[in-house]
């Protein structure tokens, strides 16, 4: 059993990993092998028939185990045949290939893959739950607990009655007898309140009994007032909800209490930010919410303060539970379907008026903070629009908690999710101030910007003249100081100073100035590029990085009012290491200088000759579809283009070239590459500097960009 626990830990600790190991993963083939060995060692027989005969497994359970094992064996054989040899990891690339080869009838490769993986996860979940539960019970018997399934209370030393037909053995809760749920089906929910109140865990016998008897929790029983109140009591216990709801889901009880959640079981999500199945992601969200309460961690302390003030924790928990239920309908706007589900659940649990409206609002707008955080947060109109949507502080606080739990529930923290979380928190703070009064908000924002400028001025004045510092900050615009730390501003101004000195010395100022700074601890190199603004500049920079075989991890671009461009890139080589080799650096600089002096055709030809980097080849094909969103709601009328797409060589160049081909330019951008995904935001305008006008022109650009990301 220790060996199995170690093996499971190495394979991700959950059934729902992105690329499951069919043999050694959680719920893999070895889980049944392990059960058979445990059965043999414990003298109960190593075959499923023997375990059924000796009442360790029910006949229906044994049949489920056999079916799941047979399915995974079939999948493993398909996998071996497809890859021409051994290997048990069902990679992203193989998922689509096998779904196609096995004849899944869905209309496209993503839907085929979803259907296949839903079956895979379902069967692995079955093997994990049944094999692990039975193995645990066999071990308990081996360790000296009485033989016979229901002799707990009489035979276990130290056992004590907990309540309502259940006994406590150490930290484990067990049933007094096998008819405990038949006597009163409402105990199927009350037992979870006992688990929560006692801080105990369900023993293997209790889990097995709940899984075989959960059908007793009929719709009529689930809608009894006492049962519903018990469930709501569980949801009201801040910091103690996630663990209990996970166990309810594992035993089938959660789907009986909230049928709207059941279709999310093992539902694969082909989205970059949701690498778990939909049900697992939701449960992790609830556990993240629990982790916030009373946390001393600096990153969580601010959320702990918000959570402590929540007056309706059951509404918040239900909103989190329901926030992605619309995805089961496979519609584009899952928030609307989820909101309809929220209305149904609220009414069923007796919520009306303000509470119903609040739950529906939270589900319908659970993505709103994330959407607004992509906009220009320095525009008062952005904050004003969000304040009009949320209307009061309670709604804003609850949305912030849902958004934070959602971001933190992605599969592993990374630079991108941390950056998103920071943006959303800044948006929350600004909107909080706006709700307190717009006049006060504007005053505080002005003071904040002035303070930031003074801090930067104080640092820069030790190296540069006061006039030079003032001109640089003024020409870079108000967002610059907020987005760039003083050390980076210092490097920018130093590069600009050196670039402009060329003009005085008579050097060729059309050649861009390129500065390289290795950030070894962070695994990348910072590249600052200073040059005069010109058409297709950003496109040619991106293309030159591609020709040099360098990966762009992130980028911030600024254009000063005197037409000097100051761009900062974080790049790495194909081994995901800083760019330290002189040849790599010189290849980029030479390519960029040549590209700026000629048409883009030659650059395009050179990019076409470049194959995928070692890093990109190792990722295989990304498992999420490309998405492209347009935002024209800013007060200035400027247009934001948001792109999420599988990364490939030359993608950024192709995107920026398409924008340039439509007679538009990029005035700002946030470029990020994370785990094989390109996550880019472009602020575009006409070449004249005016806002993009004409729906036809914008529609044509969107079609062109869609063609790029889907290629």
UniProtKB/TrEMBL annotation:
Keywords: Hydrolase, Magnesium, Multifunctional enzyme, Nucleotidyltransferase, Repeat, Transferase
Pfam families: GlnD_UR_UTase
Keyword Chaperone: no
PROSITE patterns associated with the record: ACT
Domain ACT: 526-615, 640-711
EC number, as in UniProt: 2.7.7.59, 3.1.4.-
Regulation of its activity: Uridylyltransferase (UTase) activity is inhibited by glutamine, while glutamine activates uridylyl-removing (UR) activity.
Catalytic activity, reaction form: [protein-PII]-L-tyrosine + UTP = [protein-PII]-uridylyl-L-tyrosine + diphosphate; [protein-PII]-uridylyl-L-tyrosine + H2O = [protein-PII]-L-tyrosine + UMP + H(+)
Family affiliation: Belongs to the GlnD family.
An example Gene Ontology molecular-function term: phosphoric diester hydrolase activity
Organism: Verrucomicrobia subdivision 6 bacterium BACL9 MAG-120924-bin69
Protein name (database record): Bifunctional uridylyltransferase/uridylyl-removing enzyme
